Amino acid sequence: MNRLDATRQLVSVLGREPVVASLGHPTYDLYVAGDRATNFYTWGSMGMASSIGLGLALARPDLRVFVVDGDGSLLMNLGSLATIGWTTPVNLVVVVWDNERHGTTGGQETATAHGADLEAVARALSVRATACVRTEDELRTAVARARIDPGPWVIIAKVAESGTAARPQLDNVAIKQRFMTAIGNPET
């Protein structure tokens, strides 16, 4: 499966769960797969999607929070996995599109192209539930479990590159305001 198809598959099984997307291709793909007010697109924050998702999950235990990250971004902030394993937010699901590339910055190989195993890292850092998937069926099954079973979850999806999708036409302030209203925290 390629990254865009995997993103479409994820969106097709989600309800109203909020999704925090890493900058670049994960954000562009999420936008194309199904723009909605509960998508939080990030800009200029490489490596921070899992931390933003963690903060939201801790602040809003009533929501099942999804993060869509890339392998390059997650590798830039592995400390977030340690904090996720330590704080054990049962409502957090981190989905990592692992194409073994820094797709947004030019396609340079990541450490996963040379044997780094992000699922094993997550387990070693005490993340409660993990999966590594390679097909749309495996992804659908893992996400269905993660929507119900306590987390935190880290799902590593081995994907092929899919090219660049369209970019959201929203600015940072508009994205934040739309998202906060959608999850029931409008600014006052």
Task: Break the fold down into its secondary structure elements and pairings.
Blueprint: H1 3-13, E1 19-21, H2 25-34, E2 39-41, H3 49-59, E3 65-70, H4 71-76, H5 79-87, E4 92-98, E5 101-102, E6 108-109, H6 118-124, E7 129-133, H7 136-148, E8 153-158, H8 172-182
SSE series:
HEHEHEHHEEEHEHEH
First and last CA, distance: 43 Å
What general form does the structure show?
A: globular
In helices, the fraction of residues equals 40-55%
Largest sheet: 6 strands, parallel
Strand content: 15-25%
> What's the count of strands?
8
Our count of helices gives: 8
Structure class: alpha/beta
Strand arrangement in the largest pleated sheet: 2-1-3-4-8-7
List low-pLDDT spans.
none
What is Rg? Answer: 15 Å
Mean pLDDT: 92
